[in-house]
Amino acid sequence: MMNNRLQRFLAAKTYAVAGASNRQHKYGNQVFRALIAAGRETYPLNPAQDEIEGHRAYPSIADLPLVPEAISIITPPEVTRRVIADAIAAGVQHIWMQPGAEDEQASESARAAGINVIDDGSCILVLLARQS
Description:
Pfam families: CoA_binding_2. This protein is 37% helix and 19% strand.
């Protein structure tokens, strides 16, 4: 049974993946492809890439053509802090820190801003696989 926070994340209409990558073995690439495959409107965030899997990549949330409702984060914790500060400023509603990306301070700020935060070590790939 899926908990409410996960359901709310997956009910979002638009997504961004921070730490999306062109390297197919990388977690950021797999999460991005899984969201696209699940029919979700998803934008890759990666300041070092122009394009990921044929989709235009964006350096940061502020550069996106819209504010995504949900963001999946696959970055080292020090980058996660910056992504979450951007997400709070932009008005993102749901944040899912994938295992290894978690930062307690960032989680606390996001929760204080009223954001639905998932940082319990659960993996979006497992969930999307179950849904398809």
